[in-house]
Write a structure and sequence with these properties.
Four copies of one chain form a homotetramer. By secondary structure, the first copy, chain A, is mainly alpha-helical. The first copy, chain A, is built from five helices and two strands; from the N terminus they run H-H-H-E-E-H-H. Chain A binds a DNA duplex through helix 3.
Chain lengths: 138, 138, 138, 138
DNA sequence: GTGGTCTAGACCACG
DNA sequence: GTGGTCTAGACCACG
């Protein structure tokens, strides 16, 4: 069952936290293709936030091709398909890489350490079951 | 002289773009300790944006210990000092690493490629003058 | 100035009508790259509909890369860039072509006539200024 | 025998998918005038969907003059008759042509390509039996 | 003044 | 019961 954690006292919008966590769950295989997500209302009740906020998050995920909506039935993990051109994919990650590099440099985290942190995160959500990572790693 | 580029057609707030670029310039040595930044008014005129926006950016940089304000004189690159504890530094980069990893995984960029992109960015702003990189990278 | 017409008594959602008309205006050059769209509130007042509906439409357009948001400034026509893979583009038009063909066949519109109708529509919104179509046409 | 395929993971309502496919089958001659459609219950069992959904679809088809209901006997392909005026037919296709053209233009599919896609679809369901197309295309 | 986020709540479509 | 659309209105961030 999908576990979503909302952090308040944090300026990341609620809907974005949800989007991010679902993306990770899908990308890492915790949520499988075809699997149902919690209904808008159920998740809203569970997290004690407004159903519209869940709708907004789910809507974003639909538009990014991560989940599909079946009206009256619910939302389901979409089959993997490539939506964005190579250029657009690059543009999208660069928009996130640049502030990260700026912050890391400024804060005094050295290059090795940053790459190490990211590697660890990547492995944590790798498709190979997280409790059973392959030896070779990267 | 500090070269700052503002991208419009982009919803990254102006003040954040300025903060990010100054941090990079300082971290990479393009701006040296003690060096003066453009005055609030000069930069505002130059970029054709509101002086309040520059003030906001410089204020954030002061709070992060990147620059110092000298009343009546201007802003200057601060001596490097560690402000944040190891834990706080980690918390700050993680806040940026997580959405990046979520997006990259979801979009279908593979781990190697992402690490490569980041390495490239890191080198671009490495302290070794960018026009004179050491041979092997690191 | 952008002219948007809302048809009520019509089951096409308001936000979708807006999205469609902006896409056409941009694709045909009636709205030029960099040009500002009416503000959310101005358009809402003008069309006498809720600002949230406009926001929804503009948000969709941003996500499809048609317009960019500049917080505090407004929305502007985005530079043209290819976002979707060839496959995704095909998938998207097919989702619209199939019901059209089904309806046309069923209703008794013959193939030539349908193609003619579509040609006419395409030309109406061609980049060549609509009042000055090139001779060669199709 | 009529072959109907339901796509889930797709927000096109089930009843609409059925309507569309029956229209195509009739228009292309796969279903002949007077031929019986599967009973509501049989089709519901076959597709594993609610019989109400089939009823809704068949009801729509009756209203559009595509099939006739014979109480106690079932549904049958109706003799071809023109129901809608030329103006109404035009209005109906235009409602589908406009969003298609908007999407195609916006997405960067060029006019020739779109017309080609539609031609292909039209031929796929042409009255000439699909396994025996005339030589010259149209 | 501009957009961004979130809540509250209504009414509808689908199954 | 499920999602979809729309309205109303609050409060915040940016400039």
């Amino acid at each position: 069952m999908l576990q979503i954690n909302i952090a308040t006292g944090n300026d990341v919008p609620l809907f974005r936290q949800i989007v991010e966590q679902v993306k990770l769950a899908v990308a890492s295989g915790k949520l499988e293709v075809g699997e149902a997500l919690p209904s808008v209302r159920a998740l809203a009740t569970d997290l004690r936030i407004n159903p519209n906020t869940i709708s907004r998050a789910y809507g974003d995920l639909v538009r990014d091709g991560v989940i599909d909506s079946q009206r009256g039935k619910g939302y389901f993990v979409a089959p993997r398909r490539e939506i964005f051109t190579k250029k657009e994919r690059h543009r999208r990650v660069m928009a996130l890489v640049q502030p990260l590099v700026a912050e890391a440099k400024s804060i005094g985290i050295d290059d090795e350490e940053l790459l190490q942190i990211i590697s660890t995160q990547l492995q944590k959500y790798s498709t190979d079951s997280p409790s059973n990572p392959k030896s070779g790693g990267e």
